[in-house]
Amino acid sequence: QVQLVESGGGLVQAGGSLRLSCVASISIFSINFMGWYRQAPGKQRELVATVSGGGTTNYADSVKGRFTISRDNAKNTVYLQMNSLKPEDTAVYYCYINYGRGYWGQGTQVTISS
After folding, report:
1. DSSP-assigned letter for residue 25
2. Measuring CA to CA, which residue among 75, 99, 80, 81 is closest to residue 23?
3. Could you read off the pLDDT of 87-100 as tens digits, one per residue?
4. % the chain with pLDDT above 70
């Protein structure tokens, strides 16, 4: 059973920063696709950022230039550094990996006050 545990969410003012972490219960060395998604109240879950095994990253247009995804294979962890946060970034953020099938974390709440 693969488990993903997110942390790092919280309440910050607009313009602030947060760093989310997602620790996997398995080695992520061979996992090619890892990503962060978010879901705001009343909206569908959307892709925020992805990182490949080779380090290639991809971002939603709404977060480009503000968010940075990275991975540390030695720690089985994927990170999401979020800067210049906006109220519209408020959502539950979920970690996702593709390991035979998709696995999701439990989510961490991010709330940005204006």
Report:
1. S
2. 75
3. 999 999 999 999 99
4. 100
